[in-house]
């Protein structure tokens, strides 16, 4: 039975929530492996919309055990707010499990996120402001707080005091509120008893499930081009949303994984700062934003829009070892006479099919476009590949060729049912 990683192939918001939900209906466990409440994953079931930030999208499927892996950073306030919200809408969240090794986003790291952005001046990253970067920095710096620390109050207080002292100096310097370590510790410790029943050794639970023949889906937050190692550094998030992150973020080995699915839009979007070669910073881009409803789920910011970039997609195929692409939002492209697709870049007058070696090359890249014939029909009711207009079928086939990976499914609407499955995975 398969273990499937579902991750973002572009700059985020590709429709991972919908893909996870759709595949999750045939899954036993859904494990979130990276990031935190910087993510905003939308699922639409029977016309009802759910926006999930910290909880795995799999929580919406009956019978699934949702799991937050050790690679996730957990804001305890957000965790319980989201649980309350989702539970009040009739979703059973009682099976949620959380790794005791997951790091906590303490309140001071939300402030630190702001302080860091202020210090960058005009060169800001445009983070979601959720404290993600500072929490992963503390983790790497070995001054982070793990969920298991909630059960060792005196040690936790000492850790908070040590981590907060230098940060308070910074807050003071940039006119942010100075925090009292005792108050911060009391607040965090107040969650201990509520979180206790959810704790587990995620690695053990997942490996046991795989041994039993259960299906496990690993749900990535963010995306390949936002990866701390492989993305457009420093305009990235602070985790590994790529396939490797699914392994380290949950404690499974590479030999256990059967499929790696990259979710990609039929065009491209990006939120926040950083290079984006196919960006349409004009009326065409604005129209695409309106047509696709491209506004952030987490921050409400308008998303930058552009055409499909096959160089980025090939890169995502390679970095993640993709076996499949889940292509979303094809319905948004109905109505164009022709659709440009970026097949290569020109960097300093030289054509390249691959990601430029150096970031300056990527920033200077001029897209080389191939114009593909468009279609005018509304495709939102199509449920099989053959029902799509010929031009849409050809668009898919060309993207497949350029991406060096098969397109497993095609999204034609936000709803759970609005998917053309070409190759069932489970
Ligand atoms: P995620 O962060 O990757 O889960 O994606 P988001 O939820 O942030 O953004 C994707 C948006 O596109 C959401 O509003 C989804 O409901 C919507 N969506 C997903 N797939 C499709 C699709 O195939 N067609 C259309 N029209 N909308 C889609
Ligand atoms: P999902 O899972 C799109 C972007 C932010 C910013 C950069 C760093 O919904 O696809 P951070 O707060 O993580 O330090 O911000 O990364 N970013 C996302 N963009 N989708 C996301 O998540 C994102 N999570 C972070 O806009 O540019
Ligand atoms: Mg999103």
Mean pLDDT value: 96
What is bound: which ligands? guanosine-5'-diphosphate, 6-O-phosphoryl inosine monophosphate, magnesium ion
Helix content: 25-40%
Based on CA atoms alone, the radius of gyration comes out at 21 Å
For the record, give the distance between the C-alpha atoms at the N and C termini, rounded to a whole number: 8 Å
Tell me about the biggest sheet? 10 strands, mixed
- Report the β-strand fraction as a percent range: 15-25%
Quickly give the structural class: alpha/beta
SS element count, helices? 13
- The beta-strand count equals 20
Walk me through the structure:
- Strands 9-7-5-2-10-1-11-15-19-20 form a ten-stranded mixed beta sheet, with helices on both faces.
- Helices cover 32% and strands 20% of the residues.
- By secondary structure, the protein is an alpha/beta fold.
- Strand 3 and strand 4 form a beta hairpin.
- Residues 8, 12-18, 40-42, 44, 293, 297, 328-329, 331-332, 411-414 line the site of guanosine-5'-diphosphate.
Secondary structure layout plus pairing:
Blueprint: E1 3-8, H1 16-24, E2 29-32, E3 41-45, E4 48-52, E5 65-68, E6 73-74, H2 76-88, E7 97-99, E8 103-104, H3 107-120, H4 132-140, H5 153-173, H6 181-189, H7 192-195, E9 199-200, H8 202-212, E10 216-219, H9 243-248, E11 259-265, E12 268-270, H10 283-292, E13 304-306, E14 308-309, H11 310-320, E15 324-328, E16 338-347, E17 350-352, H12 359-364, E18 366-373, H13 390-403, E19 407-411, E20 419-421
Parallel strand pairs: 1-10, 1-11, 2-5, 2-10, 5-7, 6-8, 7-9, 11-15, 14-16, 15-19
Antiparallel strand pairs: 3-4, 12-13, 16-17, 16-18, 19-20
Helix pairs in contact: 3-4, 3-5, 5-6
The structure holds guanosine-5'-diphosphate (GDP), 6-O-phosphoryl inosine monophosphate and magnesium ion (MG).
């Amino acid at each position: 039975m398969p273990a499937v990683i579902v991750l973002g192939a572009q700059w985020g918001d590709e429709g991972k929530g919908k893909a996870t939900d759709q595949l999750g209906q045939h899954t036993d466990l859904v494990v979130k492996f990276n990031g935190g409440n910087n993510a905003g994953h939308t699922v639409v079931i029977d016309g009802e919309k759910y926006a999930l930030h910290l909880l795995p999208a799999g929580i919406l499927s009956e019978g699934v055990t949702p799991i937050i892996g050790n690679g996730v950073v957990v804001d305890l306030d957000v965790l319980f707010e989201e649980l309350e919200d989702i539970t009040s809408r009739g979703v059973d969240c009682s099976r949620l499990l959380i790794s005791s090794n997951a790091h906590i986003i303490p309140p001071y790291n939300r402030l630190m996120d702001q302080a860091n952005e202020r210090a960058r001046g005009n060169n800001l990253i445009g983070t979601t402001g959720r404290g993600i970067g500072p929490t992963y920095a503390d983790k790497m710096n070995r001054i982070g707080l793990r969920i298991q620390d909630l059960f060792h109050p005196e040690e936790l207080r000492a850790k908070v005091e040590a981590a907060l002292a230098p940060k308070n100096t910074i807050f003071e310097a940039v006119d942010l509120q100075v925090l009292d370590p005792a108050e911060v510790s009391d607040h965090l410790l107040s969650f201990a008893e509520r979180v206790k029943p959810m704790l587990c050794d995620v690695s053990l639970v997942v490996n046991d499930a795989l041994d039993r023949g259960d299906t496990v889906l690993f749900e990535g937050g963010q995306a390949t081009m936002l990866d701390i190692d492989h993305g457009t550094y420093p305009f990235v998030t602070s985790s590994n949303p790529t396939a490797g992150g699914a392994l380290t973020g949950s404690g499974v080995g590479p030999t256990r994984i059967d499929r790696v699915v990259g979710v990609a839009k039929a065009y491209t979007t990006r939120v926040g700062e950083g290079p984006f070669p196919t960006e349409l910073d004009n009326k065409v881009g604005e129209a695409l934003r309106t047509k696709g409803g491209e506004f952030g789920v987490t921050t409400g910011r308008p998303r930058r829009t552009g055409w499909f970039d096959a160089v980025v997609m090939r890169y995502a195929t390679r970095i993640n070892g993709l076996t499949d692409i889940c292509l979303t939002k094809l319905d948004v492209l109905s109505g164009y006479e022709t659709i440009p697709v970026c097949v290569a870049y020109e960097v300093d007058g030289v054509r390249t099919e691959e990601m430029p070696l150096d970031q300056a090359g990527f920033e200077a890249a001029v897209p080389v476009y191939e114009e593909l014939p468009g279609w005018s029909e509304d495709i939102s009711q199509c449920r099989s590949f053959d029902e799509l207009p010929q031009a849409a079928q050809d668009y898919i086939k060309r993207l497949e060729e350029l991406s060096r990976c098969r397109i497993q499914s095609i999204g034609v609407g936000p709803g759970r049912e609005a998917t053309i499955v070409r190759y069932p995975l489970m």
